[in-house]
Design brief:
This protein has about 650 residues and is an alpha+beta fold. It contains 14 helices and 31 strands. Strands 12, 13, 17, 18, 19, 20, 21, 22, 23 and 24 form a ten-stranded mixed beta sheet that branches. The protein has a five-stranded mixed beta sheet with strand order 5-9-8-7-6, covered by helices on one side. A four-stranded antiparallel beta sheet has the order 28-27-30-31, with no helix packed on it. It is globular.
């Protein structure tokens, strides 16, 4: 059925297709508005800037409807659009035509599409799509190098899935002189429909930032308004019974601040000596030395600090959940400055956050600014940072106390780790599970060895890798031991669910081995719990694995729950299981402190001890309650 739909979408409408009236176009606009805006955004010239491209894309789509409301207004039938909708096809051609006009040079007066849009308009804010990953950034840079018609051809092929013949017709109808050349140029960029559909290129899913506040102060109207406000405030203070204003003794919003100015001075950056960590009372980011060949590049450091304080329209800002993105309160600590792959990278630490600045080496405009919260990090949690990702690999900057680094496949507990070369604290690239699309057949983690032992961390798509542990809550150990590796192996791929969630550490606890009712052995129960840097958003997964199965399955989840954690080191979970004889059972298990388990709802049963087995119907749903040996009541994860 799906292949039939795809074929229909690509099939052209015959010359005898009926026309679409204005009502059809209006219906198509409402139904496909996000997709049309995405097309316009991708085709518009990147030189407009991301914020103006967003507003212009919305303006072009909103102006795509034909003028007039008459019931008999006629729109000529075009090539097949979304599921053969002529209204959509007409709007798509109009959007393409006006978006391409914006990219064509013109003598004399500019076209309407080349002017800043009158509507929609947002004052005091810049709107731009959410930042993507390294793959989205690379695709955006490749598309910016193409001409407008070539970008249109690429989008029609990759996003609309149109054949080349239909693309030529659409480009010709949109006024392109050489559609064949546009297609040939588009062939130089690999088709990646999944990336074109990502939030990076969605002008309907937006982030907001203030405009350049310092530049606003320089405008005459803003100065007059500030002067008028100051006069009014002065008059109010002079009135009898007056007193402090709402801001007390604070300086005006745009007044110069010595602390803020010091934070932008590269000469005041904190630089730690390479030997300080040996005598420090703590092993955290505060004792990391400044490394990298560009630590003396004052111009680069000044740009990085200025962008941190005032990110412009072409800066892509991202942050882990719960992390503030404002500028530093004072001079931050420099951790690294150097070239990583095709970017110059600078990393700072301000006592609470890691800030990573990256700019293209080739001098093209635009930069990336990433933040991660690291308050309270010490030991293994402060042993590595992500310097960069590219081509499915990740490079780490390791702590000065790290002696050796290696890569290990978490799904293969008996395999040896592969040693990684470490140069000036930077590891050789290793596969990043955070960048891998599709299924999960392996999970590569970073293994670090220092004087205190060996620990495992994993890339979950953020600046700070997550620390992996194993064992009962309250007495967990490193996952690098034999027992920890065996506990993690069947459940390594469940870490996919924790990507980009601000995860600090993940613990695996094998809390029960339950005998199966058909005598085929015992099933393993494991609880994996992800702790976050911000405290909330924790996730506990109860996972179940039958004998001989290579991987386990998540059967219950608790979000912001205390179960399976240091504050509540107990867990109860259940699953419907089908035996080899074809019978369905409710299996429930708790940790060793569980004295009894009760089931209600679709299955009614009770039993003593940490296990419960009851016959059930396929699809039955049950709620679980348990009692611990000390009489405490617990509920099952759901």
């Amino acid at each position: 059925m799906q292949s039939q739909d795809v074929a229909q979408r690509h099939a052209p409408i015959s010359e005898n297709s009926g026309p679409a009236d204005v009502e059809q176009a209006e219906a198509a606009l409402v139904e496909h508005y996000p997709r049309l805006v995405r097309i316009a955004y991708l085709v518009l010239p990147p030189g407009l800037g991301r914020s103006r491209r967003v507003l212009t894309a919305h303006a072009l789509v909103q102006r795509a409807l034909p003028r007039g409301r008459g019931r008999h207004s006629v729109i000529p039938a075009q090539a097949a659009g979304r599921e053969g909708d002529p209204g959509y096809a007409f709007l798509r051609e109009r959007v393409l035509r006006t978006a391409l006009e914006a990219a064509r040079p013109r003598k004399g007066l500019p076209r309407l599409s080349q002017l800043p849009p009158l509507l929609p308009q947002v004052w005091g804010l810049r709107l731009f799509p959410r930042s993507g990953g390294a793959d989205e950034l690379a695709l955006d840079q490749r598309l910016s190098a193409l001409s407008g018609p070539a970008r249109a051809a690429y989008v029609l092929r990759g996003l609309e899935r149109l054949p080349d013949a239909e693309i030529r017709k659409l480009l010709t109808a949109a006024g392109v002189d050489d559609p064949g050349g546009a297609l040939a140029s588009a062939n130089g960029v690999p088709t990646q429909p999944g990336l074109l559909s990502s939030p990076e290129f969605d002008p309907c899913l937006l982030q907001a930032r203030p405009t350049d506040l310092m530049r606003r102060r320089q405008h005459t109207k803003a100065a007059l308004a500030a002067a008028a406000a100051l006069a009014v405030c002065g008059a109010l203070v002079a009135l009898p019974g007056g007193g402090w204003g709402p801001d007390g003794a604070a300086a005006p919003s745009y007044a110069e601040n010595p602390a803020a100015e010091a934070a932008l001075d590269p000469g005041r950056l904190i630089r730690v000596s390479p030997a300080d960590w040996r005598t420090a009372a703590r092993t955290d980011f505060s004792v990391w030395p400044a490394r990298g060949p560009l630590t003396g590049d004052t111009a680069l450091l000044r740009r990085a600090l200025a962008v941190w304080a005032r990110p412009g329209a072409k800066v892509r800002v991202s942050a882990t959940p719960g992390t503030q993105t404002g500028g530093p309160a004072g001079p931050p600590q420099l951790l690294y400055a150097g070239k990583v792959d095709n970017a110059r990278v600078v990393m700072f630490y301000d006592g609470l956050r890691i800030a990573r600045y990256a700019e293209p080496v080739d001098g093209t405009q635009g930069a990336a600014l990433d933040f991660a919260r690291v308050d309270g990090a010490t030991g293994a949690e402060a042993s590595a940072l992500v310097l960069g990702r590219s081509d499915g690999n990740v490079r780490y900057l390791t702590a000065p106390w790290v002696k050796k680094a290696a890569a290990r496949d978490l799904t293969k507990p008996d395999a040896d780790a592969t040693a990684l070369t470490v140069t000036d604290g930077i590891t050789a690239p290793l596969a990043s599970p955070a960048l891998r699309p599709g299924g999960c057949a392996s999970w590569t983690v970073l293994q670090l060895t220092d004087a205190s032992g060996t620990e495992l961390t994993t890339d979950l798509g953020e600046l700070v890798p997550a620390h992996l542990t194993a064992g009962r809550p309250g007495s967990v150990g490193e996952a690098s031991g034999a027992a920890g590796l065996r506990a993690w192996a069947p459940f390594a791929c469940s870490l996919q669910a924790e990507r980009s969630a601000g995860v600090r550490s993940v613990n695996a606890w094998a809390f029960a081995d339950q005998p199966l009712p058909d005598g085929s052995g015992a099933a393993g129960w494991v609880c994996t719990r992800a702790e976050t840097w911000r405290g909330d958003g924790t996730a506990a997964l109860a996972q179940f694995r039958t004998p001989g199965a290579a991987v386990g399955a998540a059967v219950a989840k608790g979000t912001d729950a205390r179960a399976c954690g240091p504050r509540d080191p107990h867990v109860l979970a259940g699953v419907l299981w089908k035996s080899a004889a074809g019978h369905w059972y409710l299996l429930a298990a708790g940790d060793k402190d569980t004295a009894s388990i009760r089931a209600g709802g679709g299955v009614t049963a009770a039993g003593q001890g940490q296990f419960l087995v009851a016959r059930a119907e396929q699809g039955a749903q049950a709620s679980l309650k348990g009692t611990l040996a000390d009489g405490t009541e617990i509920s099952g994860l759901r």
